[in-house]
Amino acid sequence: MRIALLTEGSYPTSDGGLSLWCDQLTTGLGEYEFDVHAIVATGTEAITWTLPPNVVDVTLTPLWGQAAKSASGRAETRRFRSMFVRMLDAMLVPGPRAVDEFVSALQGMLPFARAQHLPVLLTSPKVVDLLLERWRHRPAPGRPRDEDSDVPAPTVADAVVAIGLLDHFLRPLGAKAPEADLCHAVSNGLACLVAFNAKWTNGVPFLLTEHGLYLRERYLEYRVSAYSFAVRGFVLRFLRLLTAASYVVADFITPGSDYNRRWAIRHGATEDRVRPVYNGVDPSAFAEGPEPEGPVLSWAGRIAPIKDVEGLITAFGLVRREIPEARLRMFGSSPAGLEGYRDRCQALIDSLGLTGAATFEGRVDDIVDAYHAGQAVVLSSLSEGFPYTVIEAMTSGRATVSTDVGGVREAVGDTGLVVPARDPQALAEACVLVLTDHELRHRLARAARARALQHFTLEQFLTVYREIYPALARRQYSRADMETARTEAIVEHEYSGVDLETAPT
């Protein structure tokens, strides 16, 4: 079986939990062949992962840089504009059928995207005028149409920028449609456009896995962007409909947590086509280790705003008031383009008098060393899916203090401390408790490791996809269909003399 694995800004050109997940999947399912279709920035990115032999091809689809262009005739131009107006109306004045209208518009645009007509069509002056005309007459966010608004009216410059961004965002729709038994998008968003193309062109089934909440993370990202209010609103309306469309078009959805399952159903997925699949770790790679001497907190991850490292440092400043000898060791690096955020965090450390006590220690060759470096492991994120940091720390025999985001509560259960996000005081109080109450810390650490070994192993995660992939390739899309197929497979094993005790449950 051949799987088209669809990624955006992650595997195989960058690090992070999602890329690790892709590596686990491709390496662990050696019986399948994988073609990786990666959406990247420029197309010049280097492959940073050692690919297993069953990854037989990698295609990079850049969002930026010069795109191939082809002109279209007058009739095609008129048809395109009708689809574009349908998309705009769904975005700017959404109604109960907005998602259906948006999907229909994307289907109508697909032939233009495949023929490389979109860059020319989208950036024509008439299309910019169309956008501006409808944009200026939309209701202001949160207000009835007949009320005045203090939201600035979009300008011509706003319209040009917005159309330019839309041109780039739609480029994956025009990429060559994967020819595979199954398309597996490992995040929502732009990668799903490749799956739409494959499904509408070649009838390829579409599996969607969402770890974090793609839309929420884009809201966090654009909240601090340099674009105008109007452009940010336009982009987020597009992404809101795209993510909802993905829940509707996908044949099956495997969110990384039950939290994500509820989100998907709330935004259009049907319940019988959604099944949470938790991340897993290899227990042999995360053995228990002795605690360091003295009160030490460990943190691991990308040094990025979404991880709220500034909030973590602020909380640690409060911890030091109660435990003057406490230390915070932070492991990881800044993604390209976010080096300034690390500098800002270091400046905060210095301004709070934490220099030497809170330290950035870069990446480690073996991540388990980062967890063993602390008596407890902290996660301070603003948004997560089902974070590896937490389940890896649990497997390593460490108590955890985490913010209440994504599937963290599902991972931790009652084996760690969970506090609200964006609340340094609450985070500090939990850290002080776990560092000073040795009996509590050790009890949580033992319970955390036991929970991780019971529920979150790599083999459990791989077994589920060994079940799901063939079912989807046979066009068995509901959970009931999959359960029937699985039962039939077990019966076949029974009649062939296979020991059912070894069959996955």
Task: Characterise the protein shown here.
It contains 19 helices and twelve strands. It has 505 residues and is of the alpha/beta class. Strand 1, helix 1 and strand 2 (33-40) form a beta-alpha-beta unit. It is 48% helix and 11% strand. It folds into two domains: 1-143 and 152-280 and 458-505, Rossmann fold; 283-455, 3-Layer(aba) Sandwich (Rossmann fold), CATH 3.40.50. The chain has helices spanning 17-28, 74-92, 98-114, 118-122, 125-136, 156-169, 191-202, 214-223, 229-249, 258-266, 309-322, 339-351, 367-372, 388-395, 408-412, 424-436, 438-455, 458-473, 479-495; strands at 2-8, 33-40, 55-62, 182-185, 206-208, 252-253, 296-300, 327-331, 358-360, 376-379, 399-403, 417-419. Helix 14 crosses helix 17 (438-455). The strands form two sheets. Strands 3-2-1-4-5-6 form a six-stranded parallel sheet. The chain has a six-stranded parallel sheet with strand order 9-8-7-10-11-12, sandwiched between helices. It is globular.
- What is the count of distinct domains? 2
CATH architecture of the largest domain: 3-Layer(aba) Sandwich
Largest sheet: 6 strands, parallel
Assembly state: single chain
Give the strand line-up of the largest sheet: 3-2-1-4-5-6
| Helix coverage percent | 40-55%
In CATH, the homologous superfamily of the largest domain goes by the name Glycogen Phosphorylase B
Average pLDDT taken over every residue: 91
Shape: globular
Summed up, the helix count is: 19
Count of strand segments: 12
Q: What are the segments in which pLDDT stays under 50 over at least 5 consecutive residues? A: 489-505
Q: What is CATH's topology name of the largest domain? A: Rossmann fold
Q: Give the end-to-end Cα distance, rounded to a whole number of Å.
A: 23 Å
Radius of gyration: 24 Å
Amount of beta strand: 5-15%
Q: What class, by secondary structure content?
A: alpha/beta
What is the CATH C-level name of the largest domain? Alpha Beta
